[in-house]
Specification:
There is one protein chain. With 554 residues, the protein is mostly beta strands. The protein has 5 helices and 33 strands. The chain has helices at residues 20-30, 40-51, 64-67, 71-74, 451-454; strands spanning 7-9, 78-79, 94-99, 110-114, 117-120, 128-129, 145-156, 159-167, 171-174, 184-186, 188-190, 202-209, 218-226, 229-238, 243-253, 261-268, 270-272, 287-288, 292-296, 302-306, 314-319, 325-329, 350-356, 362-368, 379-385, 395-404, 418-430, 436-449, 463-468, 472-482, 487-496, 503-510, 520-525. A 14-stranded mixed beta sheet has the order 5-4-12-13-14-15-26-23-22-19-20-33-32-29. Strand 7 and strand 8 (159-167) form a beta hairpin. It starts with 6 loop residues before the first strand and ends in a 29-residue tail after the last strand.
């Protein structure tokens, strides 16, 4: 079994005026030379120029009514349909805007591209319904937008649905037909998962190409800025059953190189599931936006790593030169796996990153953080290049993000089986009286399904290739057919021999000819925090032979 994925543990001023950058672009595009269309090359030129200048921290322009706003009030501010950009146009796409407020404290200019013209999409408070909030009109005088959402008739031809959201730092979310928002994408991750504070690059300005009536794609440009990086991004959104987002990124470093540069980052949430039970009883069998990291290597190997909600921060690295793809997936779509009518985790998409061209040497990084509830994103995954670009040289990477509920289709019809589920329980053995008895071990039950297993003749001998690192001891392995899913079940009984270290397990199934039939299952038993040593209390003094004299009475 290939070892290419061996993990390494490492414990938004009003937009009524043309901005400086827009003015520069207008001079470039509409000056003495013949007018031409705005392009990624133009934005790349400005990202390079920006990288050569000192970073300027965005300044808040929020009055107290907005800076002190609580979340429940902020989400009451909704865009009016009649205030959508292109509301009266024949195009199927519309833009709704997010208002400034809370931590979205500096305005984000948003422009539209119409033919060869670059023009503002000006802020106007009448675009919003404040839904009863006591907001003085004077308080909105100098505000702007914090981001925007894209609407498209995704599920019905007569109704516009929100299909993409861009709000906060460099975050964005996309959904396809029948999906609900779940995990997020990001433009760039810097120093994520380190002991020092993470740097959050932000999209400081957007340009959106006004689509024609017949267009079924929307093109968005974004300028990224942070203390140690700038970037020019082109997003091409194609809504559908699986919505696609094609990304072209040109990234420049500024100043000292970051310790961690994460490309095509994904952010998600995993609280609990069958592979890690809830800490307290819950009617929902699972709560997560994603339940595993999938990686496709250049040599054809596929890997599946079930996610953890660990007791402490854990970072794992998976070597993946000439990467073919990676993503955070939500495997298992039956409603019975979640039983949640409010949040519908069964409808949340998986996100699969498909590189365009060879990204060269690097690794996929998985970050898992502890979280007490589902309100916190505690999972991140991104690609880390081995070699960072020199100042002034762009890191040019193109990729496609698939937002899908058809995870099996990601294999492209290949002859391979995948992990359907991972179950965790107390290890047990049958006694002579056929009664099951726990034996002190941990049982991990892995169900594999897929075409390579479904067509095996009855009676075929299937074997398991299983390995673990020094922190885990494998005390029993069984493989048996699982006719309920036309697949096979692998059961491992293991012991975490050194809980202070991460226990790493790998397994795959093979046929009688030795040919590997499945992806590689990679499982981690997270390290446990080392108990803090509490010093023993000092010995109490020996009592004196005679009691002290009582105080004199006055």
């Amino acid at each position: 079994m290939c070892r290419s994925f061996l993990p390494v543990l490492t414990i938004f001023a009003p937009v009524r005026r043309t901005g400086l950058l827009l003015a520069t672009l207008a001079g470039l595009l509409l000056g003495a030379a013949p007018a031409r269309a705005f392009s990624l090359d133009d934005l790349t030129t400005h990202a390079l120029a920006l990288a050569a200048k000192p970073y300027q921290e965005p300044q808040s322009n929020l009055p107290p009514a907005f800076s002190q706003m609580q979340f429940d009030d902020y989400i009451r501010i909704q865009p009016r349909p009649e205030g959508f950009a292109w509301a009266q146009d024949a195009t199927p796409f519309k833009l709704g805007f997010y208002h400034q407020g809370m931590q979205f404290s500096s305005p984000v200019p948003i422009h539209e591209l119409v033919g060869d013209a670059v023009q503002d999409l000006p802020y106007d408070p009448s675009r919003f319904n404040f839904n009863g909030l006591a907001i003085d009109a004077e308080a909105t005088r100098n505000l702007g937008y914090a981001g925007f959402r894209v609407l498209y008739p995704l599920n019905r031809p007569d109704k516009s649905d929100e299909v993409m959201s861009l709000l906060g730092a460099s975050y964005f979310r996309v959904i396809g037909k029948g999906q609900v928002y779940g995990l997020s994408g990001r433009g760039l991750a810097i120093d994520t998962g380190l002991a020092e504070p993470e740097e959050f690059p932000r999209f400081r300005e957007f340009w959106v190409r006004r689509p024609a009536p017949q267009d079924r794609q929307l093109v968005i440009y974004a300028l990224l800025d942070s203390p140690r990086a700038t970037g020019a991004y082109e997003f091409t959104l194609t809504p559908g059953d699986d919505s696609l987002l094609d990304v072209r990124a040109r990234i420049f470093l500024r100043g000292a190189a970051p310790k961690v540069l994460g490309v095509a980052p994904l952010t998600s949430m995993f609280l609990f599931g069958p592979s890690q039970h809830a800490a307290t009883p819950n009617f929902r069998p699972a709560i997560h936006d994603s339940n595993g990291l999938a990686i496709h290597a250049a040599n054809g190997e596929w890997l599946w790593r079930p996610l953890n909600n660990p007791p402490q921060v854990v970072t794992s690295h998976f070597r993946a030169d000439s990467l073919q793809g990676f993503g955070l997936l939500q495997r298992g779509r039956e409603f019975s796996r979640f039983e949640d009518l409010k949040d519908r985790y069964d409808l949340r998409p998986s996100a699969w990153i498909e590189p365009r061209g060879d990204w060269g040497p690097g690794s996929v990084t998985l970050l898992e953080l502890p979280t007490p509830d589902e309100t916190n994103d505690n999972i991140a995954a991104f690609w880390q290049p081995d070699v960072l670009p020199a100042p002034g040289t762009p890191l040019a990477l193109d990729y496609r993000i698939h937002w899908t509920r058809d995870e099996a289709a990601l294999f492209g019809g290949g002859d391979i089986a995948w992990v359907r589920q991972t179950l965790r329980a107390a290890g047990e053995r049958y006694q002579p009286n056929l009664v099951r008895q726990t034996d002190g071990s941990l049982a991990l039950i892995v169900d594999f399904e897929g075409p390579s297993l479904a067509r095996l003749p009855a009676g075929t001998a299937v074997t398991a290739s299983v390995s673990g690192n020094a922190a885990v001891r494998i005390v029993g392995t069984t493989v048996q057919a699982n006719p309920a899913i036309r697949g096979w079940r692998l059961t491992l009984r293991v012991q975490h021999a050194d809980p202070a270290q991460a226990g790493e397990l790998r397994a795959a199934l093979a046929g009688p000819d030795g040919r590997t039939l499945t992806e590689t299952w990679s499982y981690q038993l997270p390290p446990q925090p080392v108990p803090r040593q509490v010093p023993a209390p000092a010995a109490a003094p020996e009592p004196s032979a005679a009691p002290a004299a009582a105080p004199a009475q006055q």
